[in-house]
Amino acid sequence: MSSNQYINRELSWLQFNARVLQEAEDETVPLIERLRFLGIFSNNLDEFFKVRYATIKRIDLAGKSAKSVLGGIKAGKLLEEITQIVIDQQSESLKILDRIQDQLENHNIFIINEKQVSKTQEAFIKSYFLTHVSPALVTIILNDLVKIPSLKDSGAYLAVKMVMKEEVPQQGISKLLNRQVHDRKYVLIEIPRSIDRFVVLPAEGEKQYIILLDDLIRFNLKTIFNIFEYESISAHMIKITRDAELDIDSDLSKSFIEKISMSVKDRIKGDPVRFVYDMNIGEDTLGYLMGKMGIDSTDSIIPGGRYHNRRDYMNFPSLGNDKLLYKAIDPLPIPGLVLQGSLLGMISKKDYLLYAPYQTFAYVVKFLREAALDPKVKTIKITIYRLAKISHIASSLINAVKNGKKVTVQIELRARFDEVANIRYAEQMQQEGVILIFGVTGLKVHCKTCVIEREEKGKLIKYGFLSTGNFNESTSRIYTDYTLFTGNQELLKEINKVFDFFEINYKVSRYKHLLVSPHYTRTALIKLISTEIENAQKGKSAGIKLKLNSLSDFALIDKLYEASQEGVKIQLIVRGICSLIPGIPGMSENIEAISIIDKFLEHPRVYIFENAGDKRVYISSADWMTRNMDYRVEVSCPIYDENIKQEILETFEISWRDNVKARVHSINQDNAYRKNNLPACRSQFALYEYYQKKLENYQL
Prior knowledge:
Blueprint: H1 9-25, H2 31-61, H3 67-70, H4 75-105, E1 109-112, H5 119-133, E2 138-141, E3 156-164, H6 173-177, E4 184-190, E5 198-204, E6 207-212, H7 213-219, H8 221-224, E7 230-242, H9 256-266, E8 272-278, H10 283-293, E9 300-304, H11 343-347, E10 352-356, H12 362-373, E11 377-384, H13 392-402, E12 406-411, H14 419-432, E13 435-437, E14 444-445, E15 449-456, E16 459-467, E17 479-486, H15 489-503, E18 515-517, H16 521-537, E19 543-548, H17 554-565, E20 569-574, E21 591-596, E22 601-602, E23 605-609, E24 616-620, H18 626-630, E25 632-638, H19 642-656, E26 662-664, H20 683-699
Parallel strand pairs: 1-6, 8-9, 11-12, 12-13, 14-25, 17-22, 19-20, 20-21
Antiparallel strand pairs: 2-4, 3-4, 3-7, 5-6, 7-8, 10-17, 11-15, 15-16, 16-17, 18-25, 19-23, 21-26, 23-24, 24-25
């Protein structure tokens, strides 16, 4: 393996996050949406440090080279490179934030700090502080503590320094001038997460004002520390990011839910992997804090701006100004699939495809609600990876149990950063009588499947759905995903085999239709690519089209390189990590790759193989990453309905034509926008128009 064959996955991911930052910078994007993209950029970075940076740090500390895993880069060198890239990106994000705030003022929206508070605003701010903020504050005086308390992962803190007053005896000026650290008090104030970060102040005419909670606290420092005699007081923000790896207890007396719950709670003790501080903080304060916190050179130490946790900008208030937001779309119905009728009755006649958020996710909830009420439905089996905070999916499953159905739920308690919500629902469903399965030892269950059995004429007939995304009402409004509703008995029998594997792990079934990880997906994909190579060699039509979130598995990349070298044309739409390098003569000249970042998060996994004109089309839960091939349970489903197959081909082509929000993956890693002489195509907007026309034509 040569290091110049691949882009390191971490560096490629940072380029993905740079594309998110481009959306914040793009002046064609509505202003408040741009602020929210800044929030997404910051949130992404938090998760990156908790998971990927922490993993590389563990490799480095263990003294392992791991160059084969890291794409030819030593762990220590990679940590340094990541830190420098992040410092540059953070600096750029601050400049973008300043420009956005200047432009907001043109719309009479002013974000003020504690020094800009007017007399009329002062009374409101003091009252708001005493009523809402003061009771929620956690304030820690550090001087008398041997060790600083464990700071919350990704929590934001104000590091306060008070220079204390001192009685000055006659001829004692020199003592005052040479005062040491013990004449200062250092304090940490935790910014409460339970209170909105953006406090909307009373409007003044047409002008609207917002103050960040941090600055509202700064304004009230005198009130907080009124028992102290000090000469000066200052406050600067700091933030710690911790390793988010779960350490699962091996105690056999504890249930799996208990073990995961304890591991999530123990995350607050995880090793720090990033320390971000206000670059204007005093050197004495910074040194004092780093010494107390045990921060050293192996951690990523990043000077930042006045404000951290900019992820909160994802929830920046709209202020009733729709002109500064994307125009909301109304999710469309699926032609021929009527929510007011029996979905099971309609699905028994033909398959249907849902493409959210262009079409309404309500069909998934309706399917489960109907199954819960239908006296002829006997069983429901479903896999759950991430649930919404208020989940109608979970409610429907509990309702089904109450109506006498046998309900089996495979729930992944280790879904990163959603463990708490999944644990809460798992406990609730278990109490109500739902049969819970907690996966397979050593594997995460990431597939998105559901199958029900309904008694019809003395036989059990199956219905179900498979998806590329989570069964989550909240994310379905912003993630694009396909869901196939089917009554195909062969496909649904094989979904049942997947559930059999959950319960009897040593039994590996054979599959004629589905591609199932960790047993068959890799070999099946290699075989499909090999078929395209053979067809190209025989002069038959050959081609591969993939839509993925990430592409980083070296063996699959090598196979795509081989196909390219044999003349197979390959089109890749890869939103995030792309370790493959397209367009290199002699290696990948027949491969093109783009990434689309826009209003919605591109999330489907689609595999299309030309197959000498008889196209094979799959929708899948699996990206082309090693974890999805070898360490997760994944399901890829073939599309047999010719109309649905054509729909997926057409929607892929619309995405491929994007020359507005598409960036080109290249060896330069510069996120260049795709430019060509074709008519402008903004694929997400074009896809909504596509489904509008499809609905209009059906109604005609």
